[in-house]
Amino acid sequence: MHSVKMLAGATFATAILCSPSAWSAAPVVYSGSGANATTALDAFRAAIGGAKNTGAPETSGRREISWDGVKLDGTDANPNTQVVDSGHTVIIPVDRFRGQGALFEDPYAVSGDGFASVNPATAGQFPAFSPNNTFVMQDDTPYQFDDRFIGQSFTIPGTATTAGTRGFGAIFVDVEKAGSSIEYFGHDSSGHEVSLGTFNVPTGASGEPQFLGVLFDQPVVTDVKLAVGTNTLFNFDGTHFQSFGGENLPGSTDLAVTDDFVYAEPTMAAAIPEPSSYALMLAGLSLLGLIAYRKKPAFNQL
Ligand SMILES: [Ca+2]
Ligand SMILES: [Ca+2]
């Protein structure tokens, strides 16, 4: 199991579920590539229900991050943004989207040119799903390109108070080989982190978008960890960047980026059951998940 770093000083609020029956419903998986990515994303939005929220905390609806409002020339709202290549690629601080209830595990990169400025060998390979900006991890160690994970935890929007969401989904771009995924984490009533499962991003043709989202029936998801491709596009030591170079398909490397993140409004997190009941729950979820897959083959994929 991958661990997700908890932020120092963050408070963790949980509501203990009163009855295991609250877990009778399986999480529903929405996924698709190409035109089906849009279909799956729209279905995920509809299943969350309510409005797209942008301001103060709400009790329903969803949040979305398109990255398109991030300025790329050093004038972005948060003064801790680092410019990698002015006008093209910046690295945003972990709290850049705290207003939307998102806190990142590390500083990650936003680009308006599909990261061509920091990895010219991939120019044109990652068309934005929502133009122009896309999002991906970077490795902060020179000569290292193996940190392929984006970690995000949820907060009550505008605060540092840890929260839970019923579901999270993301657009990926150019996933052509199995290996990209999203792992979901929750906490039990003792505050221990537990994996709620790893779900695979579907593969598609070169340049296609993919969507993967998983919706639970309680706000149990406190963290997500996205595995994006097999390697990092570039690294940045604070002064200089190095490019990983092109991908090698059908060989061992598949490079990819992400675009729109969509998640249910973060609220006070619901605790997951203790381990014994959790194992029973997972067994039930596997069975119910398969049933859900058969019902919705167009965009459900476990
Ligand atoms: Ca975008
Ligand atoms: Ca690729």
UniProtKB/TrEMBL annotation:
Position of the signal peptide: 1-24
Boundaries of every Ice-binding protein C-terminal domain copy: 271-296
Record protein name field: PEP-CTERM protein-sorting domain-containing protein
UniProt KW keywords: Signal
Keyword RNA-binding listed: no
Pfam families recorded: PEP-CTERM
Highest rank taxon of the organism: Bacteria
Keyword Signal: yes
